[in-house]
Recover the amino acids of this structure.
């Protein structure tokens, strides 16, 4: 009996993916690592991968989408909602189909999320060069558009012989599943190589199990960390996405309760603690709570738990640069940020080890009491902003009031909704105001802040968590950039509730523009160049209905609340559009964010903004180097 099997490169690839199983180290039951493949076929993948996927469709489902970038967003969101324990692959044709994935690859790279990208590529043989959609580099005959993926992939390989899969695929899976390396993998697949056959070892396709293990810190790292915590009088934990992916909620809750240490969160980490925990301070930083930011300014030790310390978290390095940072992270690159102590390890494992090592130590009673008081104060602020009230006559609601109405529509017994969002003002408002009691109840893409992620991301979340209500909150700007996966959600029976806030332009950037002294220009429909027909009046509800959804436009908050109940009862994707005020935001909370202002300008407002900018820079320097 032969110990090999003759398969095409494409057949071998998908068979290998279908055989992979995964489980956590503390669990006994395994599950398929890959939940399926999103595919838009074209020349470059339809004959090779298309045929291979057809043969294995019962084991590895293939999903059709409407936009390459969007389907990659959906795959990435699936992995995020699965806490990086499951993932998907994405395949496209060569040329524009492939380059449409590059933005999504960068998004996954920044957010440390796994997705396997399988773009078609040009002929290795070069016999038909230049093939349709081929880029020709006049100085390098080996270049194709897929080389764009190199800087936005954790691992990149171009498969020019079928047998290269024997070492490329294990490397790819390692990058996708390793907690420190985790990110997008690109395997560029020349279309002639996809169709070539090779005698692969049968053992290569035996079911194999990926075990997600928690990296262990060294004893020396733990000892230094324990010393730093025991000496602290005002410690604060900043929990990031790594805490969620480590499933650290039980360990973090136990640590906070036992040792009296308050906790705040990043955009990626929001939800790791229930919103109503007495030591939960809310979010930190630029879009943070007044409670978290006040406590961080008073802290004498910041414990950065699974966070990459992005500028929105650190308020452009002004919020807690003055204090030591104890950074707990699986990724050494992230752990070294802040020039503090590094503990390389899984967030749940390390926080549990530290709690054991601290024994009966607790933060000073006065500090814990101060944090509890601040936390209660922020809960009161959120309740006041989001409570039901009637806006003044003729005044449009703003994002915070819309969030309150959406939140109130949730069954109080469960709080099991998942809210999905990405770019603009909404992430800032949601980070402050959305309440969730469950890890994963808040799904935000704010590492890359990619407009257009919202609806596609919501689709991926719903595919990962079909039992939960997935609410996509999106502005009109992002909706116009990417909305086609509404049709996919209807086709796949993956119901979404989409709440579209129409402020008639890019309201977020319009405010940022004016805050830096510039005049309103090219952001709102009213402030951009018009032709003779002026800006169109867009009927978003009619557009969503044309894609198969149920949709309506509501006039006010009361109508929104009623529409939310209809949406929850609906049997398919339901869009609700409401007009909102682009000038208003939540005043409470927040911190400085560095946006460079022109050093030279003819405008007084810009010069004044530049003076304020320089003052803030000097303040940061003084705070970093106290006398």
């Amino acid at each position: 009996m032969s110990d090999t099997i003759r398969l095409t490169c494409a057949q071998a690839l998908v068979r290998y993916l279908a055989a992979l199983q995964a489980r956590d180290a503390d669990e006994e039951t395994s599950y398929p690592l890959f939940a399926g493949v999103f595919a838009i076929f074209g020349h470059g993948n339809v004959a090779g991968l298309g045929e291979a996927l057809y043969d294995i469709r019962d084991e590895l489902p293939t999903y059709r989408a409407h936009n390459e970038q969007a389907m990659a967003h959906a795959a990435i969101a699936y992995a995020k909602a699965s806490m990086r324990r499951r993932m998907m692959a994405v395949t496209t044709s060569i040329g524009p189909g492939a380059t449409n994935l590059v933005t999504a690859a960068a998004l996954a790279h920044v957010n440390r999320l796994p997705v396997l990208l399988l773009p078609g590529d040009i002929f290795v043989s070069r016999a038909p060069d230049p093939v349709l959609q081929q880029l020709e580099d006049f100085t390098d005959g080996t270049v194709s558009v897929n080389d764009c993926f190199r800087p936005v992939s954790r691992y990149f390989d171009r498969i020019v012989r079928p047998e290269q899969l024997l070492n490329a695929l294990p490397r790819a899976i390692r990058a996708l599943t390793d907690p420190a390396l985790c990110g997008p993998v690109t395997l560029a697949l020349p279309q002639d190589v996809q169709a070539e056959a090779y005698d692969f070892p049968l053992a290569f396709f035996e079911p194999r199990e990926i075990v997600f293990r928690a990296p262990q810190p060294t004893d020396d790292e733990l000892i230094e960390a324990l010393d730093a915590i025991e000496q602290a009088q005002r410690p604060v934990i900043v929990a990031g996405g790594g805490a969620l992916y480590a499933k650290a909620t039980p360990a973090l809750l136990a640590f906070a309760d036992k040792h009296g240490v308050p906790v705040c969160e990043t955009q990626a980490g929001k939800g790791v603690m229930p919103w109503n925990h007495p030591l939960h301070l809310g979010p930190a930083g630029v879009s943070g709570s007044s409670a978290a930011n006040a406590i961080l300014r008073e802290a004498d030790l910041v414990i950065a738990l699974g966070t990459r310390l992005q500028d929105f978290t650190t308020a452009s390095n002004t919020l807690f640069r003055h204090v030591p940072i104890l950074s707990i992270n699986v990724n050494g690159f992230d752990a070294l940020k802040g020039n503090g102590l590094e503990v390389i390890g899984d967030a749940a494992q390390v926080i549990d080890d530290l709690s054991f090592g601290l024994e009966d130590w607790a933060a000073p009673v006065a500090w814990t009491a101060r944090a509890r008081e601040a936390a209660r104060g922020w809960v009161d602020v959120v309740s006041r902003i989001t409570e039901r009230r009637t806006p003044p006559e003729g005044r449009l609601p703003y994002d915070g009031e819309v969030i309150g109405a959406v939140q109130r529509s949730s069954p109080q017994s469960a709080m099991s909704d998942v809210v999905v969002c990405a770019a603009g003002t909404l992430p800032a408002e949601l980070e402050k105001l959305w309440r969730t009691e469950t890890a994963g109840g808040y799904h935000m893409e704010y590492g890359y802040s990619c407009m257009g992620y919202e609806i596609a991301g919501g689709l991926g979340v719903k595919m990962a968590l079909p039992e939960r209500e997935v609410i996509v909150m999106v502005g009109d700007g992002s909706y116009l950039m990417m909305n086609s996966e509404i049709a996919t959600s209807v086709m796949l029976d993956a119901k979404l509730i989409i709440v579209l806030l129409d402020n008639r332009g890019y309201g977020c950037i319009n405010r940022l523009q004016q805050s830096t002294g510039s005049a309103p220009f090219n952001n709102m429909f009213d402030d951009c160049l018009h032709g003779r027909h002026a800006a169109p009046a867009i009927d978003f509800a009619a557009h969503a209905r044309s894609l198969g959804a149920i949709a309506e436009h509501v006039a006010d908050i009361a109508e929104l609340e009623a529409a939310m109940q209809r949406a929850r009862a609906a049997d398919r994707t339901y869009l609700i559009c409401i007009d909102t005020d682009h000038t208003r935001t939540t005043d409470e909370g927040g911190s400085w964010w560095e946006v460079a202002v022109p050093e030279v300008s003819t405008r007084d407002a810009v010069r004044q903004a530049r003076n304020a900018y320089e003052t803030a820079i000097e303040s940061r320097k003084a705070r970093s180097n106290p006398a």
